[in-house]
């Protein structure tokens, strides 16, 4: 496609009925205008037709390449521009474009890097406003409120999903039909299909970063979480998906489901570790790996459960002492809960530009989410104490137990109610991620007859089949 | 069987259509959601997923924030405790609202807006409900006229909370003394308590026992508490590896 054709194609964009895309166009135009002042930047659109193909290749490669750590604000703006023009070209040319992408992983890398830059830009902008020290940068950011705007980022992701008909394709696959029948002109091409697919994973991540955990899980309605899923073919995508799904479950207080997600991927990684070493994404994966162990430690402390053997021993190795403290509960465990949460949570962002004139009112979104999470931890801090005592009795007088614990009977009554409430959890059985059944997640249960506590314990029967199979696997 | 988080039985089809499509991001739908919140307040229903969509619109378009609607959403979320609904709503509010201020004194001395103060007050109520401190919940609620203003739009707020507390009591107790229950439900007169317990909860009252009046909760699935032995679940997938191995050997 020549430059003229591309230039002609652009006015057609106005015919797009899609409001979202129109907004993207406007955003993009603003950026182009803004960029005019920076002629030294290498811009595709300003170049002649001759170097078009070659330049496109460079643009494709650039889109999937991380920015330098110390990238200047100008570079970040330019990178946003690069994405806008690239996605425009892909989405709004006359018909699907033929692109030779640099690698099989390209589609994932582009979406991943796109969101990463959005995330780091928002966090950087917030930091500049908070510190209030760099007036020059603050001014530049103030003048460009739409750069890396949440609407344009979501537009890109949703447009890629719609263009590729990926949700329809996935739904068809779920029904056992041929996805090509619903894929359409765009979606039948691998490039669009992959971009659309990874945009769904991208949305999961963006919603989670913005603190919308239920919508994050809702986004994956059409994706089945198993090893046959498309994301499983790209290690980093596989990993990212499980991390964000697990984290979203955790924030919805579905700790059992969160543990299931984290365990699944961590077991998978531990089995494939040797392949990953040496790969350039190994460091990133190793870091996320540790974060997920920290999250499992938190979830297990809040919701005691039997872990997979591999996970259990790795957790003991990495967080043994911390896990003991978390599981013991009580006020001493609070700082540790917060420390682990902060080290392992996603880097939350605020989608709108901060208030540059009042540095003090710009709170770090990570602080916001940590405070909300910690409130729940504080409320349930005495559950381990309650459980450890009740395990010893079949009946117990409330006032006597209050005496042991040195608290008011009134307070103990509250603790008993809390522990009972928190042991009821929604757990996924089948269907979409947001579905589930309430279950009693604790093997200890009790009821109060006035001040007499009747305790019962559900015992797990011997797992003979499991035991035989495991030993069989060892020798056979 | 509970309804999935993104569904709601009382949700109109028009709202459902917005939630399913991209219109959920369209600032123009803000008013539709606001009306829907007002309707929920009136007819005592609650649709968490739709309310979160409204809070998300506010998150993206802070200039559209309608403080009363936000606080009404939060007050409605209070009426479904214990649940993550309230925290999920807080997560979408601007971080500067600081629902759980780290340093209460510093907060008090610095200037905070009415909106921030309201959010913090409601967060305090949520903490009390989530940590089952029901007597303190009522005394806090009655301690300040601001609370009365905040919950005024939500029809039957106190009744809804009372019923929630009763449901939780019913799950954990077989019998409970009237003195404890009247504090938890904030029903100070014995007649009011008896009326509520009999008419709303269908529980029984046993008067003049050795320990004063006692409320008897009929047996239900949650408060009967039976010991059981969970047996191992065995399905065919577990044998996959062994079976495969058998074929490999044969080959």
TrEMBL record, chain A:
<dbReference type="GO" id="GO:0033290">
    <property type="term" value="C:eukaryotic 48S preinitiation complex"/>
</dbReference>
<feature type="transmembrane region" description="Helical">
    <location>
        <begin position="195"/>
        <end position="217"/>
    </location>
</feature>
<keyword id="KW-0472">Membrane</keyword>
<comment type="subunit">
    <text>Component of the eukaryotic translation initiation factor 3 (eIF-3) complex.</text>
</comment>
<comment type="function">
    <text>Component of the eukaryotic translation initiation factor 3 (eIF-3) complex, which is involved in protein synthesis of a specialized repertoire of mRNAs and, together with other initiation factors, stimulates binding of mRNA and methionyl-tRNAi to the 40S ribosome. The eIF-3 complex specifically targets and initiates translation of a subset of mRNAs involved in cell proliferation.</text>
</comment>
<keyword id="KW-0648">Protein biosynthesis</keyword>
<dbReference type="GO" id="GO:0016282">
    <property type="term" value="C:eukaryotic 43S preinitiation complex"/>
</dbReference>
<keyword id="KW-0963">Cytoplasm</keyword>
<keyword id="KW-0812">Transmembrane</keyword>
<dbReference type="InterPro" id="IPR019382">
    <property type="entry name" value="eIF3l"/>
</dbReference>
<protein>
    <recommendedName>
        <fullName>Eukaryotic translation initiation factor 3 subunit L</fullName>
    </recommendedName>
</protein>
<dbReference type="InterPro" id="IPR000717">
    <property type="entry name" value="PCI_dom"/>
</dbReference>
<keyword id="KW-0396">Initiation factor</keyword>
<feature type="transmembrane region" description="Helical">
    <location>
        <begin position="229"/>
        <end position="252"/>
    </location>
</feature>
<comment type="similarity">
    <text>Belongs to the eIF-3 subunit L family.</text>
</comment>
<dbReference type="GO" id="GO:0005852">
    <property type="term" value="C:eukaryotic translation initiation factor 3 complex"/>
</dbReference>
<feature type="domain" description="PCI">
    <location>
        <begin position="257"/>
        <end position="452"/>
    </location>
</feature>
<keyword id="KW-1133">Transmembrane helix</keyword>
<dbReference type="Pfam" id="PF10255">
    <property type="entry name" value="Paf67"/>
</dbReference>
<dbReference type="GO" id="GO:0003743">
    <property type="term" value="F:translation initiation factor activity"/>
</dbReference>
<dbReference type="GO" id="GO:0001732">
    <property type="term" value="P:formation of cytoplasmic translation initiation complex"/>
</dbReference>
From TrEMBL, chain B:
<dbReference type="InterPro" id="IPR036390">
    <property type="entry name" value="WH_DNA-bd_sf"/>
</dbReference>
<dbReference type="InterPro" id="IPR033464">
    <property type="entry name" value="CSN8_PSD8_EIF3K"/>
</dbReference>
<dbReference type="GO" id="GO:0033290">
    <property type="term" value="C:eukaryotic 48S preinitiation complex"/>
</dbReference>
<protein>
    <recommendedName>
        <fullName>Eukaryotic translation initiation factor 3 subunit K</fullName>
    </recommendedName>
</protein>
<comment type="function">
    <text>Component of the eukaryotic translation initiation factor 3 (eIF-3) complex, which is involved in protein synthesis of a specialized repertoire of mRNAs and, together with other initiation factors, stimulates binding of mRNA and methionyl-tRNAi to the 40S ribosome. The eIF-3 complex specifically targets and initiates translation of a subset of mRNAs involved in cell proliferation.</text>
</comment>
<keyword id="KW-0396">Initiation factor</keyword>
<dbReference type="GO" id="GO:0006446">
    <property type="term" value="P:regulation of translational initiation"/>
</dbReference>
<comment type="subunit">
    <text>Component of the eukaryotic translation initiation factor 3 (eIF-3) complex.</text>
</comment>
<dbReference type="GO" id="GO:0043022">
    <property type="term" value="F:ribosome binding"/>
</dbReference>
<dbReference type="InterPro" id="IPR016024">
    <property type="entry name" value="ARM-type_fold"/>
</dbReference>
<dbReference type="Pfam" id="PF10075">
    <property type="entry name" value="CSN8_PSD8_EIF3K"/>
</dbReference>
<dbReference type="GO" id="GO:0003723">
    <property type="term" value="F:RNA binding"/>
</dbReference>
<dbReference type="GO" id="GO:0016282">
    <property type="term" value="C:eukaryotic 43S preinitiation complex"/>
</dbReference>
<dbReference type="GO" id="GO:0005852">
    <property type="term" value="C:eukaryotic translation initiation factor 3 complex"/>
</dbReference>
<keyword id="KW-0648">Protein biosynthesis</keyword>
<dbReference type="GO" id="GO:0001732">
    <property type="term" value="P:formation of cytoplasmic translation initiation complex"/>
</dbReference>
<comment type="similarity">
    <text>Belongs to the eIF-3 subunit K family.</text>
</comment>
<feature type="domain" description="PCI">
    <location>
        <begin position="46"/>
        <end position="224"/>
    </location>
</feature>
<keyword id="KW-0963">Cytoplasm</keyword>
<dbReference type="InterPro" id="IPR000717">
    <property type="entry name" value="PCI_dom"/>
</dbReference>
<dbReference type="InterPro" id="IPR009374">
    <property type="entry name" value="eIF3k"/>
</dbReference>
<dbReference type="GO" id="GO:0003743">
    <property type="term" value="F:translation initiation factor activity"/>
</dbReference>
């Amino acid at each position: 496609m020549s430059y003229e054709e591309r230039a002609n194609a652009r006015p057609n964009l106005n015919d797009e009925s899609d409001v979202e895309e129109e907004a993207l166009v406007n955003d993009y135009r603003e950026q182009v205008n803004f960029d005019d002042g920076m002629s030294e930047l290498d811009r595709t659109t300003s170049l002649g037709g001759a170097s078009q193909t070659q330049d496109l290749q460079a643009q494709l490669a650039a889109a999937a390449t991380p920015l330098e750590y110390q990238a200047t604000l100008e570079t970040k703006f330019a990178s946003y521009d690069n994405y806008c023009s690239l996605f425009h070209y892909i989405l709004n040319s006359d018909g699907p474009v033929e692109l030779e992408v640099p690698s099989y992983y390209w589609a994932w890398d582009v979406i991943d890097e796109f969101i990463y830059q959005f995330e780091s830009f928002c966090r950087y902008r917030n930091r500049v406003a908070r510190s209030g020290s760099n007036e020059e940068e603050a001014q530049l950011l103030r003048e460009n409120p739409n750069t890396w705007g949440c609407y344009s980022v979501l537009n890109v992701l949703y447009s890629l999903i719609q263009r590729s008909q990926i949700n329809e394709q996935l739904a068809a696959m779920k029904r056992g039909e041929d996805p090509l029948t619903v894929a359409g002109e765009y979606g039948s091409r691998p490039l669009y299909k992959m971009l659309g697919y990874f945009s769904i994973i991208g949305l999961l991540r963006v919603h989670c970063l913005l603190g919308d955990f239920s919508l994050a899980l809702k986004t994956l309605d059409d994706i089945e979480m198993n090893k046959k899923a498309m994301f499983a073919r790209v290690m980093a995508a596989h990993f990212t998906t499980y991390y964000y799904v697990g984290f979203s479950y955790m924030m919805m207080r579905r700790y059992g489901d969160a543990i299931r997600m984290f365990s699944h991927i961590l077991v998978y990684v531990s089995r494939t570790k040797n392949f990953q070493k040496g790969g350039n994404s190994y460091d990133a994966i190793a870091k996320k790996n540790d974060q997920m162990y920290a999250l499992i430690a938190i979830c297990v402390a809040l919701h005691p459960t039997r872990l997979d053997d591999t996970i259990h021993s790795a957790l003991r190795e990495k967080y043994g002492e911390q896990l003991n403290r978390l599981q013991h509960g009580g006020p001493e465990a609070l700082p540790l809960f917060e420390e682990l949460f902060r080290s392992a949570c996603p880097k939350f962002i605020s989608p709108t530009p901060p208030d540059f004139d009042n540095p003090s009112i710009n709170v770090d979104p990570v602080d916001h989410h940590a405070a909300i999470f910690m409130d729940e931890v504080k409320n349930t801090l005495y559950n381990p104490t309650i459980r450890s005592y009740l395990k010893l009795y079949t009946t117990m007088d409330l006032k006597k137990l209050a005496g042991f614990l040195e608290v008011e009977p009134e307070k103990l009554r509250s603790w008993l109610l809390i522990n009972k409430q928190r042991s009821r959890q929604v757990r996924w059985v089948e269907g979409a991620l947001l579905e589930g059944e309430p279950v009693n997640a604790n093997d200890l249960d009790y009821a109060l007859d006035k001040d007499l506590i009747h305790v019962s314990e559900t015992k797990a029967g011997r797992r003979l089949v499991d035991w035989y199979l495991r030993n069989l696997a060892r020798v056979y | 069987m509970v309804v999935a988080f993104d569904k709601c039985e009382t949700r109109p089809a028009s709202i459902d259509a917005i939630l399913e499509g991209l219109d959920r991001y369209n600032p123009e739908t803000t008013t539709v959601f606001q009306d829907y919140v007002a309707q929920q307040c009136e007819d005592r229903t609650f649709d968490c997923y739709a309310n979160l969509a409204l809070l998300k619109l506010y998150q993206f378009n802070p200039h559209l924030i309608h403080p009363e609607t936000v606080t009404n959403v939060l007050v409605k979320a209070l009426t479904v405790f214990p649940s993550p609904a309230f925290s999920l709503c807080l997560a979408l509010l601007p971080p500067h609202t600081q629902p759980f201020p780290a340093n209460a004194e510093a907060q008090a001395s610095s200037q905070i807006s009415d909106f921030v103060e309201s959010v913090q007050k409601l967060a305090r109520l949520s903490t009390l409900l989530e940590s089952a401190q029901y007597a303190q919940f009522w005394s806090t609620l009655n301690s300040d006229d601001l609370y009365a203003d905040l919950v005024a739009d939500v029809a039957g707020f106190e009744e809804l909370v009372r019923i929630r507390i009763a449901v939780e009591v019913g799950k954990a107790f077989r019998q409970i003394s009237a003195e404890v229950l009247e504090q938890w439900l904030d029903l100070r007169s014995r007649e009011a308590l008896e009326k509520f317990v009999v008419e709303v909860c269908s529980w029984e009252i046993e008067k003049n026992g050795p320990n004063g009046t006692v409320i008897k909760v009929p047996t239900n699935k949650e408060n009967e508490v039976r010991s059981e032995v969970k047996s191992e679940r065995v399905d065919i997938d577990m044998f996959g590896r062994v079976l495969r191995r058998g074929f490999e050997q044969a080959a």
